[in-house]
Specification:
about 400 residues; alpha/beta; 7-stranded mixed β-sheet; 16 helices; globular
Length: about 400
């Protein structure tokens, strides 16, 4: 097992030399003391700690922060306990598969489906830690960062910023910088990275990788497509929740988006989604590690005549793994049969389970605004789509 240090590596690859990563990188070990001094006295920190560690006094809570000397200690000293607490109190259990295929001494790019703002990447960290793999760095949208406590919390949790705003030229430069940083982290630091397959969470159940993500990743890799992608050690990662975090909120957003073409989030909406995702019952949770996309597969893709077609084929390959590795539950089969008015999967659930899901759907929809028939269709489709993708 590698022992993580978050100070800058002594050597930097050619593709990273032209970039300044100061505005997006996680904190270094050497910066942790100053940061934890800020966190130790912040009211949000004390509110969270009183929930997670109710037996600790205020002085104990402060001292715990002051004695945390690195982002790795922050992840293993705080986040490990917090995420296991959430999993144990809001789910029927966490299982995982496929990690045995990976090498503890190698760094990977985990391209993941995205169902919950916090838990998708956080659950990866506790699984890696439990199996004595090094935890990863994590992408974090700039829309979720303020410049105070949340930023300190995120960067101590080995998160780095994905900037999302700017004109066309600025966004192009941001993409080049982000691409170089991800490759720098994997190649120079030998540290894995978690990144979502798309901007924002999947709200309709359809986990699809954006081609723009792969184009961004390829920007720092030079002209040889095979070498560029192979260097990243891409592993498709699938998280499956029996009960979708924030399912009702997602359906409401989809409904309003259809009405107004562009949905504008209210202040504090992301924080509300994080808290709802933490508290809501999630049933069974499964994390599936896919197969590393290796050079033999990339050589086949490289036979395509142009880069756009290569990216398209690579996208399809990642999606196929994510869809096939999604762990279906009775609620998914029930939703598929309800949506398509069929009994195709009736052998995968009981009459009682079907009625329970119908009751659950009606209960989740009762406080939403809009036409109930449309809302119900969107809600059931959210749960049915993973079945259709797996088929």
């Amino acid at each position: 097992m590698k022992f993580y240090t978050s100070d800058a590596p002594k050597t930097i690859s050619e593709f990273a030399k032209e970039f300044d990563f100061e505005t997006l990188r996680p904190y270094y070990d050497s910066e942790s003391e100053e940061v934890m001094n800020r966190i130790a006295y912040h009211e949000s920190y004390h509110a969270a700690m009183s929930f997670l560690y109710p037996s600790l006094s205020k002085d104990d809570i402060i001292n715990k922060a002051l004695n945390t000397k690195s982002p790795y200690e922050f992840q293993t000293g705080y986040m490990r306990h917090a995420i296991w607490h959430i999993v144990n109190n809001s789910s029927s259990g966490l299982t995982y598969s496929g990690l045995d295929k990976l090498d503890k001494n190698k760094a990977y790019l985990f391209i993941a489906n995205h169902r919950d703002i916090l838990l998708d990447s956080a659950i990866l960290q506790i699984v890696l830690d439990k199996e004595e793999f090094e935890t990863s760095e994590i992408t974090f949208g700039s829309n979720l960062m303020d410049k105070g406590f949340i930023t300190d919390f995120g960067r101590m949790n080995r998160m780095f910023t994905v900037k999302r705003e700017g004109n066309v030229k600025e966004l192009y430069d941001i993409s080049k910088q982000l691409s170089a940083y991800i490759r720098h982290t994997i190649v120079d630091k030998n540290v894995s990275v978690w990144i979502a397959q798309r901007n924002g969470r999947t709200k309709d159940g359809n986990d699809i990788t954006q081609t723009g993500l792969l184009k961004m990743l390829n920007m720092s890799g030079g002209k040889n497509f095979i070498e560029s992608i192979n260097q990243l050690n891409i592993v498709p990662l699938t998280i499956s929740f029996e009960y979708e975090p924030c399912d009702a909120l997602k359906v409401q957003e989809l409904y309003l988006s259809d009405l107004h073409s562009k949905y504008v989030k209210a202040p504090g909406e992301d924080l509300n989604s994080i808290l709802t995702g933490i508290k809501q019952n999630k049933g069974n949770i499964h994390l599936a590690f896919g197969d590393v996309i290796e050079i033999e597969t990339l050589s086949e893709i490289d036979k395509a005549t142009n880069e756009n077609e290569k990216i398209k084929q690579l996208t399809s390959l990642i999606d196929k793994q994510i869809h096939q590795n999604y762990k279906l539950n009775a609620v998914n089969y029930i939703a598929y049969d309800l949506l398509h008015k069929t009994n195709l999967f009736e052998g995968n659930y009981t009459i009682v389970e079907k009625q329970d899901f119908i009751n659950y759907t009606n209960n989740q929809l009762k406080n939403l605004t809009g036409e109930q028939d449309v809302l119900k269709h969107l809600f059931i489709k959210l749960y049915a789509t993973p079945v259709a993708n797996k088929l």
